[in-house]
Amino acid sequence: MQRVLWITGAGSGMGRAVARVAAAAGWTVALSGRRADALRDTASEVTAAGGTALELPLDVRDGDAVRAARARIVEEFGRIDALVLAAGRNTPQRAWGDQRIETFHDVVAVNLGAVVTVVDAALPDLRTSSGVVVVVSSYAGWSFHPSAGVAYSASKTALGSVARTLNAQEAAHGVRATHLCPGDVATDFLSQRPTVPDAAARELMLTPDDIARTVQFVLDSPAHVRIDELVVSPVSQR
Ligand SMILES: NC(=O)c1ccc[n+]([C@@H]2O[C@H](COP(=O)([O-])OP(=O)(O)OC[C@H]3O[C@@H](n4cnc5c(N)ncnc54)[C@H](OP(=O)(O)O)[C@@H]3O)[C@@H](O)[C@H]2O)c1
Question: What are the pLDDT digits (tens) for 194-203?
């Protein structure tokens, strides 16, 4: 049976690794993010390995675009079995004393609002397929992390509630959500830190493939198994 996974943030980092690993495990992948060229590269990796990928460039803050993408996936494949919601952002201006309020609202819109928008759009399909939602949150969404920033901490912490309300209210339809909380992962995301980690620091971090392997475990778990929360961190995490 064909199983269809829609990934946001699929053009880089964890999203791209999830696409590669899921496709190798037999999943058909739909790829979203703003950069069409980055999605094309992810799709090329998937198809070169014999998988099937559909590129759907969009800005996750655009609700109409999200709903149109959902319709396109259903038109193309007839179903959606899982979401991996990896699109996210931060900002180097993280403190009450230096943040811009417009940036605060945008971080919340991408990290929290858009996650809800995508789940809302795909929920009818997930109900039909007893689907899985993997919400890529953060270590800072699991345990308070002073350097993560006002907007990032607040938005990622709220994702725990998003997953829990889904699990509480949608269990009757077999829908299962995982609040996935990675520690430091060596991706482009680190360039948004006030002090960008050097190569030696990145050597100690998780790789996107470490997270993809974890996500694959969730995706391939039997339909009666729900994995509510996972915290995955490098041994060096503080
Ligand atoms: N790296 C870490 O240490 C770490 C740790 C814990 C959690 N996380 C979380 O993990 C997730 C994936 O991050 P990553 O580390 O893999 O970094 P990444 O490579 O920078 O991935 C972030 C992705 O989000 C997409 N994105 C950002 N804004 C978007 C928008 N408005 N619309 C659509 N897509 C958007 C980006 O694609 P476009 O620019 O093409 O849109 C990009 O592919 C993020 O949610 C991040 O908060 C990261």
Answer: 999 999 999 9
